[in-house]
Amino acid sequence: MKLKNVTFCFIVIFSLISFSATLNAEEYKVGVMLWKTAGSYDEGMKGLQKGLSESRLSIDQELINANGSKEKAVEIFQGFVKAKKDLIIAFGSHGSKLAFEQVKEIPVVVLGGNTPLALGIVKDLKNPGGNITGSSYFIDPKKQLKYFKMVFPELKTLGILYNPENGASLAEVPATKIYCQEMQINLIEKIVNRELIEGKLELYDSFVKKLPLATKSIVSKKVDAVLIPTNSEISDNMEYVLKITDPSKIPVFAYAEKGVENGALAGLTSDNVKLGYETAKIIVRILKDKESPVNIPFIFDEFPRMIINLKAAKKIEYEVPFSVVAAADKVIK
Question: Does residue 166 have a pLDDT over 80?
Fold first, then answer.
């Protein structure tokens, strides 16, 4: 795989490994739009590059980071279309939606995003029907809630803290509401978002400082636990949530691995490296085997990892059932 060196102002081009099956092999031009820098995307990229390397396809790969900017992402996609790439890879929920809007003819493979159904980029996971397919880290909230009940059987009232502007919330929150009702769990919502102030988006630091007050509002409702959906803005700043929940001995659950690593009690998470590796196989089918994305099903992690944070359990003086700890794929001590 060969990296095409292109310099854009304020755009990061990531260097990739070069390889080629033979000197006469067909070379494919692939554009990669990374929505932003994030650990989960790094993991997905690691698996993706491993899979593409093993395929031994000759790929001229251009990777550009949009740094979380919608305007920059649109510019990147338009550039890829103008350059007539053979295939485009889009990272993230926002990246997936923008690719759907901006790219109509070139095959698009998405990675590191939430469920494509809720994002509105396909209507059928098994037969996408358009030019987009790929993988998703989405785990059915019903599985998550069942796991939370195993970890904490006393769960009857659950508070959920989320930013409705986050792409993951489009999928996870509505499904969580449905399954909480089905499982007779009382769900109490608290929205915390980045507001527009004088026409500009509220600063990140200002948003983070709103988390303790929002958490305090949930805790005052006498919840048994607090849930944090997939949202890096909250998962990366769990201490602002825990400073309220820990003294009240209230467990926090998270849909994202980073949230559990940063202090939540438990969660189910996808193996992003594995998803990236499997996504590479889809790319090979499109480039080498000339398959259309129309009938290539989206893939998910059917066997998500169970993660338990015993340090978090100790802080709230809770003893996680031994059977749950023994079955966990990852235990943080």
Answer: no
